[in-house]
Amino acid sequence: MINLPESQKAAISAINADLLRGSIEREIERRGAGALSEYSLWQCGEFIEGKRQIFAKALDTFRQAKSQAKTERTEREARKAGDDILYAVSMMKARVLEEERDALLFVVDDYVGRPLINRDELKVGIGYRWRASAEDEWKFGHITFLHKSTPWPHLGSQTSPRKVSKAQQARENENRLEKEWDDMVLNALCSVRDFFRAGGDGKDIPAEFRAIPSRFGCGLDNHSLKFWGDRYKSQP
């Protein structure tokens, strides 16, 4: 969830940005219909492939333009869509490099199987390994994040004439817990990763950490599972 698949990283790394820029320009000049199919950008993940699809639609609109005004406008849109592809590739190449640097000193296991969720006490376990230098042996650790989920109040529930059955309430509660657990997993993974990126030592990660509810109401925010930092040292 936070680590790119190896096949995706390889596909992104293989892209020559200068050649891609030239191909985009040629597609625009000839109002091409190929839309960079030779680059297999679909292998680079949804972010880059999504930009390619937008570029393909922009080219199609540009190709069908008849009037001068519409031709000029759609050409600008096609060029912007092409620039967006190059920007997306640049961003993802930077991410690949960052993940490769991270992997020299730490790895956060982002495969987290979903348990049977039937109660409000949510648990997320994250495994990781780390070392002080690329020559050292790996050390392994695990942290469990805990959170007591509280249902959000439904606006208008006091005055609504509609009665909700117990079965529907149970389904809604189950859906809420599953979504909250999914959000909690991503938050937990990012918390452990960011701890290491900030120079943290794996031996200082607690075995268990209870989430700190959002200051703005029920639920969690982006900092609720941050087990490190001055703010959280002061928590009871």
Summarize the structure.
The protein is an alpha+beta fold and about 240 residues long. The chain is built from six helices and four strands; from the N terminus they run ααααβββαβα.
How far apart, in Å, are the first and last alpha carbons? 31 Å
- Structural category is alpha+beta
Instruction: Indicate the mean pLDDT.
Output: 89
Task: Tell me the count of domains.
Answer: 2
- Describe the biggest sheet? 4 strands, mixed
> Helix and strand string, N-terminal first?
HHHHEEEHEH
Question: What key phrases describe this protein's structure?
Answer:
single chain, 236 residues, alpha+beta, 2 domains, four-stranded mixed beta sheet
Q: What does this molecule look like?
A:
There is one protein chain. With 236 residues, the protein is an alpha+beta fold. The protein folds into two domains: 6-105, no CATH class; 109-233, no CATH class. It is built from six helices and four strands; from the N terminus they run H-H-H-H-E-E-E-H-E-H. The chain has helices at 6-13, 17-29, 46-64, 68-105, 166-197, 230-233; strands spanning 106-108, 121-130, 139-148, 208-210. The chain has a four-stranded mixed beta sheet. The longest helix has 38 residues, at 68-105. The two termini are 31 Å apart. The model has no long low-confidence stretch (mean pLDDT 89).
